[in-house]
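Example record

One chain of 307 residues, shown exactly as stored in the release files.
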Amino acid sequence: MNTLCDQLPDFVAENKFSSKGALCVALVVTEHARKQTLPLNPDNLLTDGGGQVLGLGKSTVQAVLKRHGIQRVLAAEGGRTSRGSIGNMRKYVELLNAAPNVDLDAVEVFWIQEVNKFFAGKPFKILLDASMSLRSVVQNVIGQAEERQKKSTGTHYAGAVAQHLVGAKLECALGEGKVAHNSFSTSDQQSGRAGDFQIEDVAIHVTTTPGEAVVERCRENLQDSLKPIIVTTSRGVALAEGLSENAALSNRIDIFEITQFVALSIYEQGGFSAVGRKNVVSEIVEKYNQIVTQWETDPSLRIEIRR
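Predicted C-alpha cells for this chain:
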C-alpha cells in the first residue's frame, strides 16, 4: 500500500521542501497534527495577525529535534522569517489531510532524516587553478550559491556567501578582531549597526540585489557623517548606480563589484606572487568558514578548497 511516507520524497522534490525554513514548517505542522489530530484546518494554523505559521519558532523546532538526539540549531528564527512558510504550511496540510491512516511517528522520522541530510549538505567548492583569474574563482563560488538558491525558495544562499566572503576578506586584510560579524538574517535595525560592516567612518553594505532600501540606508549613513559603500554583483552595480542617481546620491556612494573587491585585495595581500595569492585565498576561506560556523546554522554554507 502506498503510504504517506512513500509520497513524501516526491513531495520534497516537487515543492523544494529541503530548505531549513521548509523543514521547520514540516516539523511544526506534524507536531500540530499530533495535538489536534487530522484533518487539519490550515486557517487555524496561522497567528492572530495571519502573517505567520502558528508555533513556528526556534523553541518548538528544537524541542522536536531534541527528541531525536539532535542538539544543533536548524534555524535561529525557527523558519519564521522564510517568505514561503505559509504557502509551505498549506501545501503540507493538504498532503496530510489527503492521506489515509497517517503514521505520524514515521512521518516525523522522515523529516528528521531530511534534517540530517540538510546538516550534512555539501559545501561550496573553490578550485585553485593558476590558469583562472581570481575574479572568476570568486564568481564561481557566488554562482554555486545562486544555483542552490534557485532550488531552495526563500533561502538566500548567494547573499549569505557574499556577506561572509566580504567579511572574511576585510578581517584578513585588517587583522583579527577588527571586523564585527553578524548572521545574514540579522538586519541593520536589529543590531543597531550602520551596515553589514562598519569600520572607522565607513559603512559597508553587501547585497546581491540592491534596492531602494539600501540606498536609503546609505542616505542615513551620510546624515550620520559616515561614508557608505555598496558591494554587489556585476548585475547589481548597474542597478545600484541607477538607484543612487535617482536619489541624487550618485556622487556620494562608492559602489564596487564584489569579485573585483575581493580579488584585488588578494593580489595586494599576496604581494602579487603566485604563492602569496594561494596563501591569501586559503586564509580568507579559513576565516570565512570560522564566521559561518559561529554565525550561521547551515553548515552547507562552508567553502572547501579543491587543489
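Notes: The longest helix spans residues 274-295.
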